[in-house]
Amino acid sequence: MSMHLTFRQLQVFTAVAKHQSFTRAAQSLHLSQPAVSMQVRQMEEQVGLPLFEQLGRQIYLTEAGREMARYSAAITQQLDEAVQVINDLKGLSGGHIHISVATTGAYVAPYLLAAFSKLHPQVTVSMDVTNRESLLHQLAENEVDVAIMGRPPAGLSLEATAFLDNPLVIIAAPDHPLAQVRAITLEAVAAYPFIMRESGSGTRIAVEQFFEKAGIVLHASIEVSSHEAIKHAVRAGMGLGIASLHTVREELLAGRLAVLDVQGLPIERHWYLVHRQGKRLSAATQAFRDFLLDQEAARLLPE
C-alpha cells in the first residue's frame, strides 16, 4: 500500500504531536482548528490507522502516531538541511537564524544581534528567550540553530564555545547595612536572607556550587523565576540577591542597587554559544558564530 502524504500534512501532524492539542497547534501554525483537524484526518486516511487517541480532554499519540512522529521529524530535518544548503549556495542573502537565549542572556543578546545585523542586514533573526530547561530541550530536539547560555551540563551531545565573561555579584538595596562595608566575608552575607532564582536555573546552580565549595549553606528565603523579580525584591529590602553584572548595569548607574564588596567574588562565569554536535550550520548561523568569536564581544555591550 502506498501513502500519498503532503509536507503540509506532516507539518500539521508534527505541531499537534508537539503541543498535544489541536487548538495550540492551530495557533502555532496560524490556521483554524477545523483546518488542522481536516489535515490530520486526511493523513490518518492515508496511513490507514489512527494517529491520535483522546482520553478525557487530552490527546495522545497512538503507536502508529509515535512511529509517524519519528519519521516526520527526520523528514523535516532533511528538508531544513536542504534549505540550508541552497541558502549557502546563495551566500547570506535571505538567510535566517533561529536563536534561543537563556533568560539572563536577554540582557546581552540584543546588543550582539544588533551589531551583527549592521554588518549583515539581509539576515533575519528569530530570538526566543526561555529558561535553561526549555532551552536544553530545544537544542535536543533541534528546534533552534544556536543558543546563548551558561555552561551546558556535561554528557549532552552539544558543542559549546565561551565568548563572553558573565560575572555574578551580590546585590543589595543602597541602604542595606552591608552596602558600605568592605571585604565582607561569605559567612557574613550568608547570615542574611537571599532572593534566588528557581532550582535548576544556571545562575542558581553556579551560586550553590560556589558556596558549597566554601563550606557554606546558602538559604533561599524567596524563590523567583526571573532576574527582574530579584532586582525588585532586593530594591524593596526583602534580602540580598545574586545576579549577573550585565543585568544590573542600569540600576547601578541610577543608584537603585549596590554591589557588595564580598571576598572571593565575583563568581566568574561565561556566556557560551551552543549548538548540537554535528549540526550543519547555515551560512547565516556560521557567520554569526564567527562574528562573536572573532572579536571582543564585551565591546558590543553598553558601558
From TrEMBL:
Pfam families the UniProt entry points to: HTH_1, LysR_substrate
Claim: Disulfide bond is one of the keywords in the record: no
Record-linked PROSITE patterns: HTH_LYSR (PS50931)
InterPro entries: LysR_HTH_N, LysR_subst-bd, WH-like_DNA-bd_sf, WH_DNA-bd_sf
Gene3D superfamilies assigned to the protein according to its UniProt record, in alphabetical order: 3.40.190.290, Winged helix-like DNA-binding domain superfamily/Winged helix DNA-binding domain
Annotated keywords: DNA-binding, Transcription, Transcription regulation
Domain of life: Bacteria
SUPFAM superfamilies: Periplasmic binding protein-like II, Winged helix' DNA-binding domain
Entry-linked PANTHER family: HTH-TYPE TRANSCRIPTIONAL ACTIVATOR CMPR, HTH-TYPE TRANSCRIPTIONAL REGULATOR
Protein family membership: Belongs to the LysR transcriptional regulatory family.
UniProt-recorded name of the protein: LysR family transcriptional regulator
Organism from which the protein derives: Acidithiobacillus ferriphilus
